[in-house]
Amino acid sequence: MSATDTATDVPLPARKKRFNRNEVLAALIFVLPFVVVYAVLFIYPTLQMIWLSFHKAPLIGPGTFIGLDNYAKLFKDKLFGVAFWNTVYFVVLTVVPATLTALAIAVGVNRLKGWMQSLILACFFIPYILPVSVVFRVWGWMFDSQFGVLQPLIALVAGDNVPVFRTLPLFMPTVAFITVWWTIGFNILLFIAGLRNISPEIYEAAALDGTSKWRQFTRITWPLIWPVTVLVLTIQLIAQFKIFDQVYLFGNGGRSDATMGLVQLIYRSAFQKNNGGYGATVAVVLFLIIVVFSVLQFQMLRARGEK
Fold this sequence. Notes:
Helix content: over 70%
Number of strands: 2
Strand order of the largest sheet: 1-2
Shape: globular
Largest sheet: 2 strands, antiparallel
Radius of gyration: 26 Å
Oligomer: single chain
Distance between the termini: 56 Å
Order of helices and strands: HHEEHHHHHHHHHHHH
């Protein structure tokens, strides 16, 4: 056996193994801080929440293990049913409309040039940076039943001023509209980023072939930004399932059970009534609902994108 063969047959596996071990060690060094932070801030609290849901206990302090009694109580609780359907209704009113509206605006803004594009984009994004308290004050004043600047328009339709936030059929659609107005700026930015990644040469080739604007959108733009659409829909789904601030504030400090959402039910159970075990149970159910809906939506949208 030659020296070359010896060097090839014996040292190479050892060098390869040592190289892989070094790679794994370097990867662990970089990943470990994130894993530790993630475990401390997410995994541990999640496990504690699940464990607390099996107890009759205050929010802070020891309790009594009661097994699945909290879950049995949960599905017999009429207030939980109201909160669940209110949350689902709010998701239906916001997720798809916000995504489609943001896409339409992004396509229009993307066609603008120079300072005009920056100005219009800033106008849509500025509401996103406002705190919810400011949004509440602005829209509360605009819909005020006595002095609201929108009441003359409402009176043209209804015949008189309407206390929108105290009228149950109007409450959730109005809050959903305000939420879309408030958060749409971020979705527009995501779509703008996706649109700018499409090469102009593709549109030039389509224009030379006489393709209409609508067919360019359906055959070129829409398929190429489909991954961004999936991202926006998933982000919106998770965010709107966790709705709390707007409903709580516009519902006069959460005093109305008819407008309650799941997060508000968690807040009332755990923080106002100091029933940590039951509040944790609602939180576990909400967590599972978000996981299931997010995975199903992502898989269906990904399957459609692959087709």
